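For this section, I looked closely at a protein sequence along with its fold in token form, which I now present.
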Amino acid sequence: PREVVRRADRLRRSTTNEQTPGISDSSSHRVSEVSTTTTQALRLLSTTRPTMAAAAPSSLKKRVAVTITSDLMCPWCWIGLRKLQEAQALVDDDIAVDITWKPFFLRPGAPLEGVPKGGSPASRVGARLRAAGEAVGLQFTGLTDRTPNTELFHATMKLFETDAAKQTAFQEEAFRGYFTLGEYPDERGLLEAAQRAGVETEVRALFADPKKLDRLRKEASEEAFEASGAQGISSVPTFAFNDSGPAMSGARDARDITRYLVHFAK
């Protein structure tokens, strides 16, 4: 794993002309400075490691559990996931990464129908955010014209809390729907995301069960308020590793995330 970090350091120094300047956002979530290593460079690194031993069998790999506290309306949370996935690819020979998600409300109490954003799609996406997204293969279009209430989304995510693969797949498609396709995250929009993620049957059944949906909505709300209260989380995305508690926030560089994965793997 140390060789992975050294190679990432060397690659970053050799590709400084490909990095995106520090990025900040004016919305309510506070985001750490972002320094972007391009996806192409990271892919090159992950496929050129001639001195490393062959990948360990899955059962012999060290493991690290990563918990991401996030809200659907946070664009940096989608970028942060991409950076984590890039870091995951760098250590995949030796470390298995298990990703789970916890809720956070950036706009608690927002009306169910959302709040109109105003402006045009082009005006809703700043140049820096657009560039940061493109650097990791994401497209922010500004097509969704309302800032959403995300309670239903988080309740739906709770449905998959024991299936990490399905939870992350649904999270990704909900991000894509909201930020790229212009889908508002009501039942209709979330069913579109569920269909793309291959979990439409489960989500449709949830929406047809008001009692279960209310229970999951309540649980998600309690977790979200605990995150901003007892856990002291004030910005998203926030990452926790194993049982560390909040350890890192912001859409960090893949190299930085790799250091955490190596440190916490066991």
Observations:
- Confidence is low (pLDDT under 50) at residues 10-53.
